[in-house]
Amino acid sequence: MDQRTIRVTVRGAFDGLTADQRAELLAHAAEHDVSFAAFTAEGSLTYDIAARPFFTFRVAETVEREQDIPAAVSRAETTAAAYLTARGYGFKNLSSQAADMSQVPLGKRGRKLAARAD
Q1: Among 47, 67, 95, 99, which is 20 to 30 Å from 6 by CA?
Q2: For residue 85, what are the contacts with CB-CB under 8 A and spacing of at least 6?
Q3: Sequence-separated (6 or more) residues with CB below 8 Å from residue 57
Q4: Contacts of residue 79, Cβ cutoff 8 Å, sequence gap at least 6
Q5: Taking a C-beta distance cutoff of 8 angstroms, is the pair 26, 66 a contact?
Q6: Which residues of 46-72 are buried (b: 16+ CB within 10 A; e: fewer)?
Q7: The dihedral of CA 77, 80, 85, 89: what is its sign?
Q8: pTM here?
Q9: Using CA atoms, how far apart are residues 26 and 94, in angstroms rounded to an integer?
Q10: Is 118 helix (H, G, I), strand (E, B) or coil?
């Protein structure tokens, strides 16, 4: 059976941060800038707390069937919540969006590489 790479984007808002937590997030903001955004198995957090209280947590997972995607989304939300909770950050309004990379159309470069492989 083919493996499907699923990219899950979990969005939410920080909630009830203390002044110390906010200062900690600001101090580490450069490490969590969108320019370092990546879909990884353990998850990748990005935010711009100086501008707004929102964050994005990106997770990559592999599933075998399309029916497994909702479970992957649920696991990604759980991973995001665990990541934030472990650091003591409150959060709210989690929402998720999944992209099945096997269904994403190839760009020009991808089509050329696929043609060469055939």
Answers
A1: 47
A2: none
A3: 9, 10, 11, 12, 43, 44, 45, 46, 76, 79, 80, 83, 84
A4: 42, 43, 57, 59
A5: no
A6: bbbbeeebebbbbbbbebeeeeebeeb
A7: negative
A8: 0.84
A9: 21
A10: coil
| CATH number where 110 lies | 3.30.70
Q: Where are the alpha helices (DSSP H) in the chain?
A: 19-27, 69-86, 108-117
For 100, the domain range is: 4-117
43 φ/ψ sector (left φ>0, alpha ψ -120 to 50, else beta): left
Q: Give the number of other Cβ atoms within 10 Å of residue 89's Cβ.
A: 20
Q: How many domains does the chain have?
A: 1
Task: Write down how long the chain is.
Answer: 118
